[in-house]
Amino acid sequence: MEVLRSLEAMHEWRASLSPDYRLGFAPTMGNLHAGHIALIHRARQRSDKVIASIFVNPMQFGADEDLDAYPRTLETDLEKLKAAGTTAVFVPTANDIYPDGLAQHTSVDVPGLTDVLCGASRPGHFRGVTTVVSKLLGVVRPHVTVFGAKDLQQVLVIKKMVRDLSINTEIDIVPTVREVDGLAMSSRNVYLSQKDRSLAPLFSETLERVREQVAESLSGIDGIIAEAKATLTNAGFVVDYLEVRHTHDLSEASSLSQETAIFGAASLGNTRLLDNRIV
Ligand code: PAF
User: Fold this and answer.
1) How far is the centre of ligand 1, averaged over its atoms, from the C-alpha of 56 (Å)?
2) Using an 8 Å Cβ cutoff, are 210 and 225 in contact?
3) Cα 274 to middle of ligand 1, angstroms
C-alpha cells in the first residue's frame, strides 16, 4: 500500500495509474472503524484499485467544535487500510488543501439541502465538506466514490454537488455499520463516557420506533415525534432535531409516495450522535 503524503505524490500516483483500471475512492477523516472498512470493501467490489484519504478537515468544524480533540490515529488507520486491501492512501497536509489558509480559500456551496437539519445547527459545516470533497475528487479523479449512509444528509449534498459541477464520479452509498446494540459506528463514539455509552443505543432504538410508526401512517406525526423527543430528553439526551423528510430534496414529508427518512441528531454529554432510518 502506498502512502501519498503530499499533493505532488498524489498527482504522480494518479498519472501513473493505467487508464484500464477503475479507481474507487473512500474519503475519510481517519480514526477508522468497521464502518470505514465497509467503505473500502465496497470500493474494492466496484473497482480494480482503491484509494482512501485521511484528512481532518478544519473547514467543516465550527469555532466551538472538536477540531483539536478529534482523534488522530494515523498509524493504526494505515494498518487497517492495508489489511483491508487498500491500494494507496492520500494523507495531504493542511497546506496542500488550503495553501492560502481557510479564509482565503475558494469554497463550494450547495444551496437548499444545506439549509436544514445539520446545515441549520452547524452553520458552515457543509461548505467545509463540499469544498474539501470537491478538491479531493479533483485530484483523485475516481470512477466511484463511497460514503456511509449514517451521514445521509452529507451524501445527498455531495450527490447534488457532483451533479451540479459535472464531476465525473459515481457516488455509492454504503449501509450504516452498527455496534451489536444498534449504535451507529462513528469516530466520535470514543468521546462517550461509560454511562453515556450504555444510554446511547436508545437513540437508534427511538429512531427505529419512529420509523415503524411512520411506515404505518404519517398522520399523527407531530405526536409521534413529540413522544420520541420526550423519551430521549427524559433519558438525558439533548435533542438537536428529529425530523421526517423526503430524501430527494429534504423537504418535510407530506406522503410516503417518495422516499422518506427519519433524521436525528442528539447530544449525550459532549458527544453528538447522528443517525437516520429510511422508512
Ligand atoms: O464523512 C467524513 O468523514 C467527512 O465529512 C469527509 C467526507 C471525509 C469530508 O471531510
Assistant:
1) 8
2) yes
3) 14
What average pLDDT does the segment 53-80 reach? 96
pLDDT > 90? residue 148: yes
Q: Specify the domain boundaries for CATH 3.30.1300.10 within the chain.
A: 187-278
Q: Is 248 a catalytic residue?
A: no
The residues, any chain, with a CB within 8 Å of residue 255's CB and separated by 6 or more, are 218
Q: The domain 2-174 belongs to what CATH superfamily?
A: HUPs (3.40.50.620)
Q: Strand, coil or helix: what is 270? A: coil
Distance, CA of 133 to CA of 241 (rounded, Å): 25
Distance 253 CA to ligand 1 centre (A): 27
Atom index in ligand 1 nearest the CA of residue 57 equals 10
User: What ligand 1 atom has the least distance to the C-alpha of 136?
Assistant: 9
76: pLDDT confidence band, cut at 50, 70 and 90?
very high
- State the average pLDDT for the chain: 97
Cell of 200: 446511547
Pocket of ligand 1 (CB under 6 A): 27-29, 57, 60, 129, 132-133, 151, 154
Kindly report the protein residue whose alpha carbon is nearest to atom 9 of ligand 1.
Answer: 129
Q: What distance lies between CA 217 and its chain's CA centroid?
A: 29
May I ask the CATH class of domain 187-278?
A: alpha beta
Global confidence as pTM: 0.96
At 224-266, the pLDDT tens digits run: 999 999 999 999 999 999 999 999 999 999 889 899 999 999 9
